């Protein structure tokens, strides 16, 4: 195996193959980033709609809830094909990449909305009440009070989802979109060693997802430390016996 | 129940748990929908279903909660100034100057940039009072503001309220601190099962209650 890898490596790591793999990685990254950003925006909108209480918005609440519940329950691959055949029934001029992107956005919206909703619900109801008593409107309460507090609950599962999503985009290779996983299939088809090819693919996924995990960890940390100097010390003292610090003057 | 309050009065609501004291304050503030009855301010009836009227009324009142409910994501100064700046659209410099004075008044001049979770319960509640006062309310509602506090922290909060009472701000107080109620109230309202049992001066309610239910309640409370 090792001999074969060494032997094929010069033929495999050519300029054109590298460009091809990088382009495929770009497509994977594009699908993920656009999917997650769109998912975040629409997911936020859905979470916000679901947090309303006005009776007039009940049909809208039901509709978005139905959307979320359905799209979280269908396998991603099935959604891909439903969307593909659905769109192709209407128009044939839409690229596979666009169809894949639409499917990805629909799925990530459903999942992101649940992550954001859970974060928003982690903020005590009393915070909302205090804001209401001071005449804060819906959007001001959301943006000034709920979201800043929900953030630290949203971030960890949010980034976990994005990292997972990088890998899930591999499924769009099934409908013929040339992204990273697809290149693996293709090079193996050309006769290269599967170990060499999929080793490269693996490295590609790692290179994309690891920085994202690090970014998530960094943001979480920053969020925890941005408050005050004491809390920075608290975080960086690491494991070990918790030092009790005097917090304020106790009466 | 029927209750009218004059400007500058300090009304205390007492009664057993579940008698509807807090509910009454929450309905007044529009946090719970009223099922029946009416609220009038300066003779004008408030329609709680009208957003504009609800807003206008909340503009004239402020409430302090049992659990303080300070915004956890903001430091003390921002907690006090956010509503006047963002909601009432007043100039930041003015609001901050007033907030500084208010925080001095409640004894927290040093704590401008502390976050709520760095403060003791008594300190948080005093910030909450400063936050309510920064709204310049005509009526201040205090909903069991000392109930969640350790006994030794109660005094500092009561001292703050006492000084407000002497300044002539209209207050509706729900409290179980009978000695305090007796001292600061102009009138005391005894409630039970959602009804007003008796209204009277502190001397009347605590000294010579007319109703048997009041006598029973006050007797029980004062015995220990």
TrEMBL record, chain A:
List UniProt keywords, sorted A-Z.
Answer: Cell membrane, Membrane, Transmembrane, Transmembrane helix, Transport
* Record organism: Mesorhizobium sanjuanii
Q: Name one GO cellular component term.
A: ATP-binding cassette (ABC) transporter complex
Q: What is its main location?
A: membrane
Return the InterPro entries for the record.
Answer: AA_ABC_transptr_permease_3TM, ArtM/GltK/GlnP/TcyL/YhdX-like, MetI-like, MetI-like_sf
Q: Is Cell membrane tagged as a keyword?
A: yes
Concerning Gene3D superfamilies, the annotation shows:
MetI-like
Task: Please give the start and end residues of each transmembrane region.
Answer: 29-49, 70-90, 96-120, 141-166, 195-213
**How would you describe this protein's topology in the membrane?**
Multi-pass membrane protein
Q: Where in the cell is it found?
A: Cell inner membrane; Cell membrane
Q: What is this protein called?
A: Amino acid ABC transporter
Q: Name one GO biological process term.
A: amino acid transport
UniProt record similarity statement: Belongs to the binding-protein-dependent transport system permease family. HisMQ subfamily.
Molecular function GO labels? transmembrane transporter activity
* Record has Cytoplasm as a keyword: no
Indicate the segments forming the ABC transmembrane type-1 domain, all copies. 25-213
């Amino acid at each position: 195996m090792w001999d074969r890898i060494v032997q094929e490596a010069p033929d495999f790591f050519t300029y054109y193959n590298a460009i091809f793999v990088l382009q495929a990685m770009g497509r994977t990254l594009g699908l993920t980033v656009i999917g997650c950003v769109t998912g975040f925006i629409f997911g936020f909108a859905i979470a916000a709609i679901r947090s309303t209480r006005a009776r007039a918005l009940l049909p809208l609440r039901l509709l978005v809830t139905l959307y979320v519940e359905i799209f979280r329950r269908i396998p991603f691959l099935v959604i891909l094909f439903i969307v593909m055949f659905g769109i192709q029934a209407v128009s044939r001029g839409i690229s596979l990449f666009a169809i894949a992107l639409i499917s990805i956005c629909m799925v990530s919206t459903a999942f992101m909305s649940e992550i954001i909703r859970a974060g928003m619900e982690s903020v005590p109801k009393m915070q909302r009440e205090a804001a209401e008593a001071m005449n804060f409107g819906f959007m001001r309460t959301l943006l000034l009070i709920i979201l800043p507090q929900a953030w630290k609950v949203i971030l960890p599962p949010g980034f976990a989802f994005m990292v997972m999503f990088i890998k899930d985009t591999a499924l769009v290779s099934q409908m013929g979109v040339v992204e990273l996983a697809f290149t693996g299939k293709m090079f193996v088809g050309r006769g290269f060693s599967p170990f060499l090819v999929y080793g490269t693919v693996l490295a590609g996924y790692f290179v994309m997802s690891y920085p994202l995990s690090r970014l998530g960890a960094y943001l979480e940390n920053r969020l925890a430390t941005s408050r005050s100097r004491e809390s920075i010390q608290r975080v960086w003292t690491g494991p070990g016996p918790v030092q009790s610090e005097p917090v304020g003057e106790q009466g | 129940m029927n209750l009218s309050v004059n400007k500058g009065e300090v009304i205390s609501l007492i009664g057993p748990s579940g008698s509807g004291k807090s509910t009454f304050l929450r309905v007044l503030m529009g946090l719970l929908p009223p099922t029946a009855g009416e609220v009038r301010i300066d003779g004008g009836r408030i329609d709680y279903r009208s957003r504009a009227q609800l807003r206008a009324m909340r503009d004239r009142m402020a409430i302090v909660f049992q659990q303080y409910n300070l915004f956890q994501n903001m430091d003390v100064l921002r907690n006090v100034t956010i509503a006047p700046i963002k909601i009432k659209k007043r100039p930041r410099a003015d609001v901050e100057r007033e907030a500084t004075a208010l925080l001095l008044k409640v004894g927290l001049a040093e704590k401008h940039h502390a976050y709520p979770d760095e403060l003791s319960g008594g300190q948080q509640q005093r910030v909450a009072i400063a936050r309510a006062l920064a709204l310049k309310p005509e009526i201040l509602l205090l909903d069991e503001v000392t109930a969640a506090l350790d006994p030794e922290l109660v005094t500092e909060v009561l001292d703050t309220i006492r000084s407000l009472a002497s300044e002539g701000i209209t207050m509706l107080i729900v409290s179980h601190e009978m000695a305090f109620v007796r001292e600061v109230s102009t009138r005391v309202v005894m409630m039970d099962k959602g009804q007003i049992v008796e209204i009277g001066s502190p001397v009347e309610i605590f000294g010579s209650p007319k109703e048997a239910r009041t006598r029973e309640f006050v007797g029980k409370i004062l015995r220990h």
